[in-house]
Amino acid sequence: MTNSHVIKPLTPETFPAWLALAQKHNGVWGGCYCSYFHDDTEHTVKDEYDRPTFKQRLVAEGVAHAALVFDGDDAIAWCEFGSPVELPNIYHRKQYDAGETKSAPWRITCFFVDRDHRRSGVAREALDGALELIAQAGGGEVVSFPNELAPGKRTSSSFLHNGTRAMFEKAGFTFERHIGKSKTVMRKTIPPARG
């Protein structure tokens, strides 16, 4: 892990760097622009805008959160997080909801790493950055849905947009249960930042 990377929140000021990273990769996952987990807001209807404009509007409304990993002026990765209201569209939602006894105030839904920086620990930097931003916002329980990789089977990092169980375990998350074929539910409580 390098010390030259800086974590910044996704804001109207950092949005252009975020957008440049997404555009470098054709909008990410077929033009998603990290909008899949979002839904309409009071002011913005998803289907009335192209995906980059939709995401920009959510950032301006303060209802799209991410930790961006910067290398100089360039964003090279992100970890999307937010409340269940901000990010309702999770995979296996019915199965997740059916087994949910205590809804967490935060969820982590998505990672993206620049193809030139994959398999170098940058996703973990983004995860740690998201947890720090959650601490600064008052902390609380965080739930996420990382993939559990089949032993010995190599998986393209481009498919691991939820991260891996192993990465979350190293970050102190506790495994709770499986949902779907390869997704897990994992939790960690983040204390509020001091000062």
From TrEMBL:
<protein>
    <submittedName>
        <fullName>GNAT superfamily N-acetyltransferase</fullName>
    </submittedName>
</protein>
<dbReference type="Pfam" id="PF00583">
    <property type="entry name" value="Acetyltransf_1"/>
</dbReference>
<feature type="domain" description="N-acetyltransferase">
    <location>
        <begin position="5"/>
        <end position="191"/>
    </location>
</feature>
<dbReference type="InterPro" id="IPR016181">
    <property type="entry name" value="Acyl_CoA_acyltransferase"/>
</dbReference>
<dbReference type="InterPro" id="IPR000182">
    <property type="entry name" value="GNAT_dom"/>
</dbReference>
